[in-house]
Amino acid sequence: MEEKGLKKELGLFHAVSIVGGIMIGSGIFYVSTFVLQRSGMSPGFAILAWLIAGLMSLMAALCYAELGTSIPKSGGTYTYISEAFSPAAGFAMGLTDFFISQSGSISALAVGFATYFSTIVGLTDTQIKIMAIVMILVLSGINMLGIKEGGNVQGIFMVAKLVPIALIIVLGLVMGDVNNPMTMVPGEGKSVVTAFALSIVAALWAFDGWSSVYIVSEELKNPKKDLPKAVTIGVIGVTLIYILFNLALLKTLPAVDIAANDAPAALAATNLIGKSGGLLVAIGALLAIFGSCNGCILAYPREYYAMARDKRFFSVFAKINPKTGTPINAQIATAVVSSVLILFGTFEQLTALVAFCAWIFYTMGVSSVFVLRKKYPNLPRPYKVIGYPFLPIITIVLSLVVLIATLYEDPKNSVIGVVIPIIGVVIYYLFFKKNETGKSVFDEIDE
Q1: What angle do CA 357, 80, 27 make, to 5 degrees?
Q2: Is pLDDT of 336 > 60?
Q3: Residue 59 maps to a domain
Q4: Per residue in 125-141, pLDDT tens?
Q5: Residues of the domain holding 36
Q6: Is residue 256 within 8 Å of residue 46, measured between CB atoms?
């Protein structure tokens, strides 16, 4: 049977590498600029935005740990909200991910990689886009060889990227002598609500990826033990890295220079140790973004595979390569859509849209904890979210505040993020509702 085709070949190190490896990508090198701009040039408020984004991600990840250990099936958020709310909700999310959120993440990372590579050799805009597409195709090819091969690449680049990042943090904190006032009040006349929403959404892009390990939970050797450990280690570790990294930038560069530069880390390293510093950061960025993009390409097609297996997406995506155990058609489709998206929109537009769309469904995913506890009170839960019900409630409230404020302050991207899921619900009832079998994911687990 096709649903038996996925192979359990990922251990704890692979799981942590997926969490941290996807999160630490282009965001750490690019997003500092956006967060500072959106905070109204308030360094203290910008650091607070990074902290809150990390806490939101950790709280959501811990809620997901209960879901993932109870339902160790491919699909992640799609699987949880389909079971908790309705298959239509799951389909709407999957469609949004396929055409915007997840494919957009891959596109943004590939463009980020090519842009940083351009700082070394110099590329035109067209060459940057071509290089980004080639990168997607190469990484897709590697991951089609098998989950273990993709996981090994993820582990290697996770370790490699930490070396230059750690060096920048240490040099910046020790050698930096710039005194940016760590004001905690938004500047440039921005209201607290505006700065809070926009700066946190920008920071959340850099944290996006923690949920990806749940998409591949069916391929973990021991998901019931490894999922909670992986997300806790990964999210806390990445949050500390981001905060220290941004503090190092603020000790090395004036805030106005950070906000005005597309690659502030490279500028900071150049100021600290000369041209070799800029090259070091460029190499670190390339390693980080390459690894992050690989993790996305590894995980995301599994969601579309899970949807197709449930007869809620194109049936061709349910095909498993019998030799490699990978969802080959879903991988090919993901590569194609991601490559097409590179031709549209800027890096900042892609990241803002991706973060907003993702957190609509993360909020629903966290809400699933309450729904599934009520629907299935006797379901074995190897891990129960700490601080229940308060931690999930706080996570949902924070998410709603950010989403509503962003909808008000950035209506263009936000409306797209709302309209696409609504269209998804309509498409589901027109074309996929007829395929429903009434079978629950828990029936599959029992089998």
Answers
A1: 35
A2: yes
A3: yes
A4: 899 999 999 999 999 99
A5: 14-440
A6: no
Q: Which two tokens stand for residue 147?
A: 């989950």
Q: What's the total number of domains in the chain? A: 1
Residue with tokens 């908790």: 84
Distance CA 116, CA 286 (A): 7
Give every CB contact of residue 380 below 8 A, 6+ residues apart in sequence: 70
Q: What is the pLDDT of residues 82-102, one digit of tens each?
A: 999 999 999 999 998 998 888
Distance CA 364, CA 369 (A): 9
Strand partners, 10: 220
Pairwise CA distance, residues 143 & 327, whole Å: 10
pTM for this prediction: 0.82
Compare 403 and 353 and report the one with higher pLDDT. Answer: 403
State both tokens at 165. 């990042």
Strongest mean pLDDT among 165-174, 209-218, 366-375, 423-432: 366-375
What was the pLDDT predicted at 440? 61
> Which CATH number do you get for residue 313?
1.20.1740.10
Phi/psi of residue 312, each to 5°? -120, 15
What integer pLDDT is reported at residue 444 of this predicted model? 54
Whether the bond into 389 is cis, omega within 30 of 0: yes
Residue linked to tokens 């590498």? 17
**Is 316 contained in some domain?**
yes
Burial of 220-244, coded b for 16+ CB within 10 Å and e otherwise, reads: beebbebbbebbbebbebbbebbbb
Which residue shows structure tokens 């706080």? 394
DSSP per-residue string spanning 259-294? HH-S-HHHHHHHHHH-HHHHHHHHHHHHHHHHHHHH
Between CA 126 and CA 20 the distance in angstroms is 31
- The residues that bridge with 220 in the sheet, in sequence order, are 10
Q: Is 231 within the bounds of a domain?
A: yes
Please name the residue that has the structure tokens 């503090």: 247
Query: CA-CA distance, 90 to 418, in Å (whole number)?
Result: 15
* Residue 26 token pair: 């282009």
Mean pLDDT value of segment 414-418: 79
pLDDT at 3: 43
Q: With CA atoms as reference, report the closest residue to 242 among 27, 33, 41.
A: 27
* pLDDT single digits (tens) 285-317: 888 888 889 888 999 999 999 999 988 898 999
Q: Which of 185, 10, 183, 208 is nearest to 109 (CA)?
A: 208
Can you tell me the mean pLDDT for 3-7? 63
Residue 9 lies in a domain: no
